[in-house]
Specification:
Length: 296
């Protein structure tokens, strides 16, 4: 077996909103865990509350990090979070920097999601449309819980309102006041490489007509959803992956912010159906090599 991704510390993958480990046989990190393991990495995909605040999810993650450290005998972990998983990882690292070697944000709404802002305005929780959206999320979550086969921990609490608020621009701004580690000082800039001994990185994609809507994404409904969601963006109109804006994703060292990947492509969903010329798995492999070279 190759050792090119054999990082010093285990890689812990943290999913986003409505995240899971495996639905029946279908993994969240489709083809990513196996690609990293084949190259010598120790990889653990975790699950936290699919619908809850980043703080509550972060506390759950801290418990699991300590379990992983006990099981592997490692001194720290490398956290890689997709979407809200990035905020979850940031929380854990801010609270226990002694347990975390690095935080990597993959399409993380580190300055909020304009889609969440749009839904707050147009689907308020005290109106019928808002209640319908909540009911739909509740139903999806219940269905996913039935199909989950990869998680064996305690029952995870759900708070749809807290989940939504923790993804809006206002909600994330409040979160950032408490947990600013790794954030850039200027909009669109890079953040510090390291804070409190934790290395910070990020990468993200944007919709690129003629690329992201072609290739195998022609057969992926999630790409169509991303194109629809992208219409809600104002500040980063034309510069988003459908759910997160390009600059909003910046954290620590920005590896890249304009890959031809929508919000689902970036974790190789669905079933590896991505746009033309997209290689999301390669980005994870290269990043593991980067972490290894950095000695973490
Ligand atoms: Ca896709």
């Amino acid at each position: 077996m190759s050792q090119q991704c054999a990082t010093r510390y285990p890689l812990v993958l943290v999913p986003g909103m409505l995240g899971f480990i495996r639905l029946v046989l279908y993994p969240y990190w489709y083809g990513i865990v196996s690609a990293l393991r084949r190259r010598g990495a120790v990889v653990v995909a975790v699950k936290v509350s699919p619908l809850h605040s980043s703080e509550v999810r972060g506390e759950q993650l801290l418990v699991q990090i300590q379990d992983i450290l006990r099981q592997t005998g490692a001194g720290k972990v490398n956290l890689i979070g997709h979407s809200q998983g990035a905020l979850t990882a940031r929380y854990a690292a801010a609270r226990r920097p002694d347990l975390v070697a690095s935080v990597t944000s993959v399409a993380g709404p580190n300055h909020g999601s304009e889609l969440a802002d749009y839904l707050r305005i147009h689907y308020p929780s005290d109106r019928a449309k808002g209640r319908l959206l909540k009911a739909l999320l509740w139903l999806i979550n219940a269905l996913m819980n039935l199909l989950e086969t990869g998680y064996r921990g305690p029952k995870l609490p759900v708070d749809i309102q807290a989940s939504h608020e923790s993804l809006t621009t206002t909600g994330v701004a409040l979160f950032n006041e408490h947990y600013p580690q790794g954030l850039p000082d200027t909009w669109g800039g890079q953040g510090p490489e390291e804070v409190d001994g934790v290395r910070y990185y990020s990468w993200s994609g944007i919709l690129q007509p003629g690329r992201t809507d072609r290739g195998r994404n022609l057969f992926d409904g999630t790409n169509r959803s991303c194109r629809l969601f992208a219409r809600t963006f104002v500040r980063e109109a034309g510069q988003c992956d459908g759910m997160v804006g390009r600059f909003s994703s910046h954290l620590g060292t920005v590896i890249g912010d304009d890959y031809p990947l929508d919000h689902f492509d970036i974790v190789n969903q669905s079933l590896g159906l991505v746009g033309r010329g997209a290689e999301p798995v390669r980005l994870f492999v290269e990043h593991a090599q980067r972490l290894k070279a950095a000695g973490v």
